[in-house]
Amino acid sequence: MRCVLPPLAAPMYRYLAYLPAAHILEFAVETGMLVFGAAVGYSDPKTISSKGAVRRMPDGTLNDQATGFGKKPPGGIQEFAPTVMAAVPKIWDILKKGAEDAVGCVVTVPCCQC
User: Fold this and answer.
1) pLDDT, tens digit, for every residue of 47-80?
2) For the chain, what is the domain count?
3) Cβ(77)–Cβ(84) below 8 Å
């Protein structure tokens, strides 16, 4: 088995786990991250992004805005700022659609026909 993460650099990695714990991809990647000493954070597919998620603030108010890393955002990605994520294709499609909606347009690159 070949090591993908350098052992000395592994503590700088942060993995965001959000698939069901019984999912084989989640189990394999999470186990690998723990073996190499990476930090592991847990989220839910419904609250992985700040869109549609709500977080109770320390003062009792509710935050539904993407406030950024370290400012108690409601989404798992913004809160944990992962450096490594594993996902099934459906989740990547959802994240892509969310990014495209946030940008407001889809930029296409013309194909060069040489």
Assistant:
1) 776 666 677 777 877 777 666 656 666 677 777 7
2) 1
3) no
Q: Quickly list H helices, 1-114.
A: 24-35, 76-80, 89-103
In a domain, residue 74? The reply is yes
Q: Is residue 111 part of a domain?
A: no
Residue 110, in any domain of the structure: no
Whether residue 1 lies inside any domain: the answer is: no
CA distance 97 to 4: 29
The Cα–Cα gap between 12 and 37 comes to 9
Cβ atoms of 39 and 15 closer than 8 Å = yes
Domain carrying residue 47: 10-103
Cα separation, 107 vs 12, in Å, equals 33
Angle at 17 between CA 81 and CA 40, to 5 degrees: 65
Q: Are strands 14-17 and 62-63 parallel, antiparallel or unpaired?
A: unpaired
Residue 65: closest CA among 74, 57, 77, 78: 74
